[in-house]
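assembly run, all chains below
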Amino acid sequence: MDDGYLAQFSSLFSQFDVLGAFGTNLALTFFAAIGSLAIGTVLAVMRISPVPSLRWAGGTYVTFLRNTPLTIIIVFCALGLWGQLGITLSSDFQTNFFRLAVLGLAVYHAAFVCEALRSGVNTVPVGQAEAARAIGLGFGQSARLVILPQAFRGAVAPLGNVLIALIKNSTVAAAASVPETSGLMRTMIENRPDVILAIFATFALGYVVVVVPVGLATTALSRRLSVAR
Amino acid sequence: MSARSVLFDAPGPAARRRMRVFNVVATVVVAGIAVLALWRLADKGQLAASLWTPFLDPSTWTNFLLPGLLDTLRAAAVAIVTSGLFGLVFGLGRLSQVAAVRWVSGLVVEFFRAVPVLLMMIFFWLALGYSDLVEAPDAPFLAVVLGLTLYNGSVFAELVRSGVHNLPRGQREAALAIGLRPPQSLRLVEVPQALIAMLPAIASQLVVILKDTALGQIITYGELLDSARRLGSGQGNILQALLVAALVFIALNYLLTRFAERLATSVDRRTAGAARAEAPSLVVDPD
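ok done. output:
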């Protein structure tokens, strides 16, 4: 790699807003994470509730959404919800697509958040619930005071995996023509096919830099929070 | 242990009565949401029979959906084989006795697990397009397979490693005691058992591969989603076409998941002790 190659490559950064594109992906991730955590928690409560119809509805949602490719969901949000049904989430054209992509990412990952929370409940030994009932706590009390606090701690590691998947999947927002990293990488390569490897390496390392600390942080967090048994 | 057994006691008469009331209320709410959605669709004219009847016509399937489905299955099938090989090679690499091999394999596996699959697909698609290694029409297919292989192969490599690590230590000790060398023990005793322990995890990763073939639509690979989109924009029923494509994916993945669950129960007894394998979360492991 001589000086000329590097100089040519670095000139691309003044021409294209690489950091801005990563910012878009992180913004997509942030809002979709909040949305999927909210929907996923409701689904998890539905799935562990004693009411059969709620359990059924939650289970059906998870089965359907988890088995549908994310790309179809995003295309559905862009072409179906907006194109056919005329649902707009913002009067601004760009913001509208951004929000539709967030919606698609949130409803898809909610199914995985639900499963992560449920696996957290499964880490709680039966003896805990039996002990709670034995000292006279009701369902609500034993769930609130004994089971859920331990379940959330057990769910940190699987939730971290969902967050990592969400960061990487935010690139699929390209299917709803949101200007983010994968679209920008394509434009940059099409502009400058001579430095294609350096462009790909930049974006790939960008994701490594974002994803690996998240993985380390959630692992450390889950170790610190894990209930000693 | 199921979530239910942790949370509830066997309900008594009062609790059963309360649950029945809740059940009826919840059913009404869930059904109400469904009716509301259908009513909105009807309001927009999306329930018109003319938009749905094309899917009863065999030519819709033979001209659009089945060729698309075939391409989806083709990419998935090839990617499953290649990522299996990739996973085996790099999984053994991570277990190698040579530190350099271990280190390089670890770097490769962690790198490809951190990079979005779509980014890899776009890169390979454009790179193959600019080079003249392959004919232009083959580039999207190869890019889909390469992207899927590198990511899922890395996941498989982690599965191999964790499967071997989770075997009871006695297996390796016994192999060494009868005079096998460490690589022989790995090849003849540990990995075969780890592979069986991996089967359920592998089967659920197959669902991921099948789903991710739909990313090919973005790089102009003519798979199921792409053909549904073309069908929908041709006949003005994109909503319905996407729904049908999604249902096909759901049905296929549901069958795969069921298969995985049955596999999980039937292979339980075929490894030493409670062997299991799962891909650990994405961290650079210290060992």
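The longest helix of chain B spans residues 58-94.

Residues 3-43 of chain B form one domain.

not gonna interpret more than that til we talk
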